[in-house]
Protein: diphosphomevalonate decarboxylase
Amino acid sequence: MNTEYSPGRARAIAYANVALVKYWGKRDADLNLPDVGSISIALDALWTRTRVELDPALEQDSFELNGQIEAYGSGRVTALLKRMRSIGGSETRSRVFSQNNFPTGAGLASSASGFAALVTAADRAYGLDLSPSRLSELARIGSGSAARSIFGGYVEMHRGELPDGSDSVAEPLAAAADWPLAIVIAVSERGRKSVGSTEGMQRTAQTSPFYSAWVNNQPNDLALARTAIATRDFDALAHVSEASALALHGLAMSARPGLLYFNATTMECLHRIRRLRGRGVAVFFTVDAGPQVKAICAPEAADTVAAALEDVPGVTEILRAGLGSGAVSMDDGQT
Ligand code: ADP
Ligand code: DP6
Ligand code: CO
Structure:
């Protein structure tokens, strides 16, 4: 363990996660309070590393993503740093350097690993020493899915009831080692989605005639998934996860104008996965706000699943992952 601590600078790593019971829709945009709870798994192969360096000479925070000054997402980063400074009573601005090892804004949850890594590094750099639950609350303000990436394995995000958002936080449901599933991701477009998740869910909540049905059904799906995870019931988890993913996309398509996150390759991958399961392979699909397909499977099925998806026209890359851990901060001695 690293016992050295350099005040004013720190690093963190956080892993992306994929929701099995999906989050889509907010009840408060400022604090980013969700209208629904969600359940996810962390992915060990998709991560963000972030470094935060305090500098009393800075007049503004700066944010560099993958080696480039990032103007597009810097508002959220700065707002979060400001909030963390006010907790610690500091006025010192920071330089933030971040790296995603997978495509940003493409439906692979870069906002989740990104904001979880940011709050975890900033917590250490500003010497706040907040609890994981408080970090989850802060990460949520950056991005709803980021609240879940504070924790590893199987994670539940609570909708919460309080207007201040202090109960809209995630908590671990089961450890990765309790049920070590594998994830095979079929990537068909590495570019940024044309409508980001924040805007997409806002449009859906405002215009879909089915939005209240989605919100009202969510407790049922959460209960089904919780039980499936507690009892390691793969078929039950497969059914509720596919239902939640398809309901999310049906809902998004019912917004006006409708949101189309699938491409033709997405649809073909879903058919292949259903066919594999029909042949007895332990696999199911989920899809987020982007065209990439995530196949969740038993570890012994991962080679078969990867081979089947690699074959689908339009699949440009296969990513493979196991279940990941929670966000971790490190001292930033030399880098
Ligand atoms: P995704 O499917 O990748 O989560 P979103 O539309 O939800 O797509 O979010 C993408 C946004 O998340 C980016 O435009 C940026 O603002 C933010 N983001 C991505 N990576 C990071 C990072 N490493 N640090 C901070 N913010 C990030
Ligand atoms: C489809 O967490 O990216 O991936 O809170 O506006 O930043 P913001 O949205 P984000 O939305 C994720 C939506 C999803 C489903 C999920 O991860 O639960
Ligand atoms: Co996101």
Remarks:
- The chain has a mean pLDDT of 95.
- The helical segments are 74-88, 110-125, 132-142, 197-207, 211-230, 234-253, 264-278, 302-310.
- Residues 9-175 form a domain with the Ribosomal Protein S5; domain 2 fold (CATH 3.30.230.10).
- Residues 48, 65, 72-73, 76-77, 98, 100, 104-112, 114-115, 118, 143, 196-197, 289-290 surround adenosine-5'-diphosphate (ligand 1) (CB under 6 Å).
